[in-house]
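Design request, tokens follow.
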């Protein structure tokens, strides 16, 4: 199954996405848009492919997927000077992925802070948001955020990058409607961005509802390899995780989380 660019444009005509670009293959949809931000007005642009050959994750991690087994989508958003709330964009994209998968396939995933989407505890999608200063936003010296999401769609068990991953086809036993999935995700992302950055309390409430991290005992590895073990109690107004480490409150904007078994 392939993406229907014309149907996608029709389905998203009343959203913030003014330019829909479906490409046969590319190295990285995020890198494509970040590079173009230096010379183009790219706010409202979405770039999609089912063959991303040099995908990027946090901490400069890279990955590849067999052709046609993953849906990669990157969306460019003019963020102006709202840089204090940039941490919310990956969380917001996670909420959009939950809603989009639920609408298109009927299965509701959960979220692992900061950027993983899970079905039955296994990773179905990852998210990378990147910010770049650009004089080409139409907002003076504001910046552009590129929000990238990679969804495992039809990978077989022996094609998964790690044993803790899964694909929509494996998890649900259903055929994956690519165009419907992309449209549902991008519509949800557009709607959620209407709440950002003015209603972060509302976003935090929605995140709590879909989070598999909040309320769990976790291991949080901070930049510099400092390790914190405690209970994740929430996210703050900036999208940072809050962990109660035996009475000591730790708030982190970045880090790797492992869900621990209850003690």
């Amino acid at each position: 199954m392939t993406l229907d660019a014309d149907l996608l444009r029709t389905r998203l005509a009343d959203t913030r996405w003014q330019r829909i670009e479906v490409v046969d293959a590319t190295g990285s949809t995020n890198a494509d848009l970040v590079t173009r931000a230096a010379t183009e007005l790219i706010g409202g642009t979405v770039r999609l492919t089912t063959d991303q050959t040099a995908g990027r994750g946090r901490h400069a991690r890279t990955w590849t997927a067999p052709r046609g087994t993953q849906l990669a989508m990157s969306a460019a958003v003019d963020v102006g000077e709202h840089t204090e709330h940039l941490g919310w964009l990956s969380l917001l994209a996670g909420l959009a992925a939950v809603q989009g998968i639920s609408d298109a396939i009927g299965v509701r995933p959960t979220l692992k802070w900061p950027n993983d989407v899970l079905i039955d505890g296994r990773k179905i999608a990852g998210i990378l948001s990147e910010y770049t200063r650009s004089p080409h936003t139409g907002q003076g010296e504001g910046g552009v955020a590129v929000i990238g999401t990679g969804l495992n769609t039809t990978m077989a068990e022996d094609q998964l990058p790690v044993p803790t991953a899964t694909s929509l086809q494996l998890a649900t036993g259903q055929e994956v409607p690519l165009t419907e999935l992309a449209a549902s995700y991008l519509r949800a992302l557009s709607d959620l961005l209407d709440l950002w950055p003015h209603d972060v309390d509302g976003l935090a409430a929605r995140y709590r509802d879909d989070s598999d991290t909040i309320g769990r005992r976790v291991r949080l590895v901070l930049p510099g390899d400092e390790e914190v073990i405690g209970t994740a109690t929430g996210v703050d107004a900036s999208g940072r995780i809050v962990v109660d480490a035996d009475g000591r409150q730790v708030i982190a904007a970045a880090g790797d989380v492992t869900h621990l078994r209850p003690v």
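Comment from the thread starter after seeing the answer: thanks! The first strand starts at residue 19 and ends at 22.
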